[in-house]
Write a structure and sequence with these properties.
Blueprint (H helix, E strand, L loop, with lengths): L1 E6 L2 E4 L4 E9 L7 E6 L6 E6 L5 E3 L7 E6 L4 E6 L8 E6 L21 E6 L1
Parallel strand pairs: 2-10
Antiparallel strand pairs: 1-3, 3-8, 4-5, 4-9, 5-6, 7-8, 9-10
Length: about 120
C-alpha cells in the first residue's frame, strides 16, 4: 500500500503563486503515473495534471498553461507549481496514482486511497 501526503497549500492573493508537494510512502507499482486533482466545495473532484515516470505530462485544458507538474523520482515526490492563481483555483488539492495513463483524467480510476489533501485559497 502507498500513502500519499500533500503539502504546500495556503492563502494567496489573486495572481500569486504556490508550489504543492506530494510525497509517497510505501510501495508503488508500475506504471508509476502520478496526478493532481482538486475539489471545490459543492463540486466533484476534477483532474488538474498528470505525469508519467518518464516525464510525459498532461494538463486540464482550463488551466491555460498556468500550472506545471514535475517529479523527483529519487525523492518519490511530485510537485505542482501554480502561477497566476485565480479565485476559481480555490480548492483542496490531492495527488494519486492513476490506474492507467489513458484514465489519468478520471479521479474515480486511481489506485491509492485519497490523502488529506492540501487547501489552496485564492483571495481577490
Amino acid at each position: 500500500q502507498v500513502q500519499l501526503v500533500e503539502s504546500g497549500g495556503g492563502l494567496v492573493q489573486t495572481g500569486g503563486s504556490l508550489r504543492l508537494t506530494c510525497a509517497a510512502f510505501g510501495s508503488l507499482w508500475s506504471p508509476n503515473h502520478r496526478a493532481w486533482y482538486r475539489q471545490s466545495p459543492g463540486k466533484q473532484r476534477e483532474f488538474v495534471a498528470a505525469i508519467t515516470a518518464d516525464g510525459e505530462t498532461k494538463y486540464a485544458r482550463s488551466l491555460r498553461g498556468r500550472f506545471t507538474i514535475s517529479r523527483d523520482n529519487a525523492q518519490n515526490a511530485i510537485y505542482l507549481q501554480m502561477h497566476s492563481l485565480e479565485a476559481d483555483d480555490t480548492a483542496a488539492y490531492y495527488c494519486n496514482v492513476p490506474i492507467a495513463w489513458k484514465n489519468c483524467e478520471d479521479p474515480s480510476k486511481v489506485a491509492a486511497s485519497w490523502g488529506q489533501g492540501t487547501q489552496v485559497t485564492v483571495s481577490s
